[in-house]
Design brief:
mainly alpha, 133 residues, 6 helices, single chain
Length: 133
């Protein structure tokens, strides 16, 4: 994809090293996000303030931020838990039971059985748990 020089607006799941990131950024393929974060990143700036190690981890050697790694968090729509009188799961076994209840009981009320899709992408060079921006 990068060799084509026909870049999309956003790239996700790209497995490149910090050195490659610097090469592509100096060529203009990757643009710094610093100004966007400063102008529009209210939650991102708060995250950096509360967790400075995150900002230092994703800041390149030239002082710019070119990416915000995706979180490996799972999100659950709490109104569905409440509708089915379920607690927030804290273990994988509890999560499994919640997902089974969602599938069986139609918490969104559309009359269709729910389908769940989960995709896990492991970037070998990434930190195990990076928050999203």
């Amino acid at each position: 994809m990068l060799a084509s020089e026909d870049y999309p607006d956003v790239i996700t799941g790209l497995n490149i090293s910090p050195a490659q990131q610097m090469i592509y950024s100096t060529q203009g393929a990757f643009l710094p996000l610093n100004e966007l974060i400063e102008k529009q990143g209210t939650n991102t700036k708060k995250m950096f303030q509360d967790n400075p190690e995150i900002q230092s981890t994703i800041t390149a050697v030239d002082g710019n931020i070119y990416h915000c790694s995706m979180s490996k968090k799972m999100w659950i729509y709490e109104p569905w838990l409440k509708k089915l009188n379920l607690d927030m799961p804290e273990t994988t076994d509890e999560l499994y039971e919640v997902l089974k209840a969602f599938k069986k009981n139609d918490p969104n009320g559309n009359g269709n059985r729910m389908k769940f899709r989960y995709r896990y992408h492991r970037n070998p060079g990434a930190l195990p748990s990076m928050p999203s921006c």
